[in-house]
Amino acid sequence: MLEDIVKKILQARVYEAALETPISPAPFLSRRLDNQILIKREDLQPVYSFKIRGAYNKLAQLSQAQRDKGVIAASAGNHAQGLAMAAKQLGVRAVIVMPRITPDIKVQAVRARGARVVLRGDAFSEAQTHALELIEEYGYTYIPPFDDIDVVAGQGTVGMEILRQHTGRLDAIFVPVGGGGLIAGVAAYVKYLRPEIKVIGVEAEDSACLKAALEAGERVTLDQVGVFAEGVAVAQIGEAPFAIMRDLVDGVITVNTDEMCAAVKDTFEDTRAVAETSGALALAGLKKYVQQTGAEGETLLCINSGANTNFDRLQHIAERTELGEQREAILAVTIPERPGSFKKFCKTVGKRMVTEFNYRYADHENAHIFVGVQVKPGGEDRIEVIRKLREAGYPVEDLTDNELAKLHIRHLGGGRPQQHFDEEVYRFEFPERPGALMNFLTHLPANWNISLFHYRNHGAAYGRVLVGMQVPNGDRFHVEEHFEEIGYRFWKETDNAAYRLFMA
Predict the structure, then answer these.
(1) pTM across the whole model
(2) Which CATH number fits domain 326-401: 3.30.70.260, 3.40.50.300, 2.50.20.10, 3.40.190.10?
(3) Active-site residue, selected from the candidate residues 51, 106, 211, 287
(4) Do the strands 328-336 and 366-374 form a parallel or antiparallel pair, or are they unpaired?
(5) Which positions fall inside the ACT-like domain (predicted)?
């Protein structure tokens, strides 16, 4: 089977539309990590991602009768743009069904490349269902984003170019994983010609469908999928990709939001390219690999899979970068409510920059401060700061990995209610579209009172929302049943230390 896949990769018709992208050295990162770091630049494709390869190759294999009927896909991102451009170049009518929450920049990009856009539903599954309905009605040919052998072959040309362009030592290739089309193609070609090179998949922690499948020995469907890295937000690894690469990959690394944001910055500093979060995913995994294995003197290559990011997301990415580099510790510290306390606290911290300090009077004895402290990468320095503070008698909560603290608490004023009352606090992801809030409110019982609400736009398809509610005792055990009816992702935060210290 492997030989057949490699033949398909060699015969793939991608260069009628796609470019052979270069491999860029990363000198700053190489010095910092004590390894030679290389970046394969798929962000330089005409549609700013590798997806043009698989989409064009699939279209090129269709019969004339299939082309005459037109093609269709459900997509909120890079596959949509790749298919739109491929169809235009081959003179094929294309229909792209996109969720209504798709950022306008992506909708306009697809339309600019000649495809007809149909907006339907608030989630990919709804767009997919409508695409299948249109196929039944009009006979369109469906072009899948990853679960197809011709798509895999088109993406596999990335691996072919890597081995042709870099003929020297290469220890490992790090590949971003969503549905698996790219890593299946790269792994097949690389392992056939140079089996000694490691091929390592990198997934977002909250959409690690390949990791789950490898652990289970079969494809599984994730209950929930994170949306921060939209390009890899897939609940189940593709059937065809998994069959190809399940025995070829050498491992899977998962990374979090902060690590992806730090990798966006690293990519920019070495190449001046602004990668999307899923585009920087492989580099984040490469860095984690070096940290975990202690690798030195190796040649490591990662694939920058795309650069289709919204400009207004950059502020949020920049905010999270220092945390991703482990250069900032976010701490909740209790200090005495008296003159000179802040000065004494700073003296204990030592010659480290205080990057953030949030405080609001709570009572006459103690103050809870939300503080950011600059630390050295690696985590040991953060542990040392916390140790010194505790030895000095300060109660400390480490909030560096606390999503509630990073998304909401640090941006709130620290206000507290004048009198005690019970409230339930939940964190939500609302679809970024008109009517999302009203839909939420109309599903809540009339006798529930909203006691806290915080929302920030991050330029993504989903908004992060923090909600506090006063819920009658009789409803306490049924709160989440109402949320499940709404269909938005949610997390209970009532017992979160960040909320308890600064907002309760």
Answers:
(1) 0.78
(2) 3.30.70.260
(3) 51
(4) antiparallel
(5) 329-401, 424-495
